[in-house]
């Protein structure tokens, strides 16, 4: 009888060890790359029904500094489109739709592409376009600096996580 009990206990221990090995294998299999930024698990939030996706949920998923830059960009383009719409008679070239042409001129001027299909012909339009170019360059610099800050922040968090795991390893070895 004692042999049967010890065999039963050792069999139960073997099952427990096997389960713990399976759990460890699962954890190893789903380990993320250490150089990649941490991505939150959103399985609870993710829904395949497209009708439940709202603009508010999309805005919350964007990093805060990118939201600020997006608001500044929208204000910049809107103000530029209104101003270029108001001085549209001072811009020469083939025009199609006044609002669309103003927005197009804003984007082309901001990015300094300058195709030449629309160009300022008066001093007022030239001065405004020049000021708009300088503000656009500053805005592009802001966008790039925010993107770089975001990447550095993610890399720093990853590095600190690695250092913490190495520190725990050193303590265990000691």
CATH class of the domain at 63-174: Mainly Alpha
Please give the share of residues in helix.
Answer: over 70%
Structural class: mainly alpha
**Strand tally:** 2
How far the N terminus sits from the C terminus, by CA atoms, comes to: 45 Å
Q: Give me the Rg, rounded.
A: 30 Å
How would you describe the shape?
A: elongated
The biggest sheet amounts to: 2 strands, antiparallel
- The ordered string of helix (H) and strand (E) elements is HHHEHEH
Query: Per CATH, what is the topology of the domain at 63-174?
Result: Helix Hairpins
Q: How many helix segments?
A: 5
Strand content: under 5%
Descriptive notes:
By secondary structure, the protein is mainly alpha-helical. The chain has a domain at 63-174: Helix Hairpins. It has helices spanning 2-29, 55-61, 64-86, 98-110, 123-173, and strands at residues 91-93, 118-120. A two-stranded antiparallel ribbon has the order 1-2. Helix 3 packs antiparallel against helix 5. It is elongated, with a radius of gyration of 30 Å.
Short description:
With 174 residues, the protein is mainly α. The chain has helices at residues 2-29, 55-61, 64-86, 98-110, 123-173; strands spanning 91-93, 118-120. The longest helix is centred in the last third of the chain and has 51 residues, at 123-173.
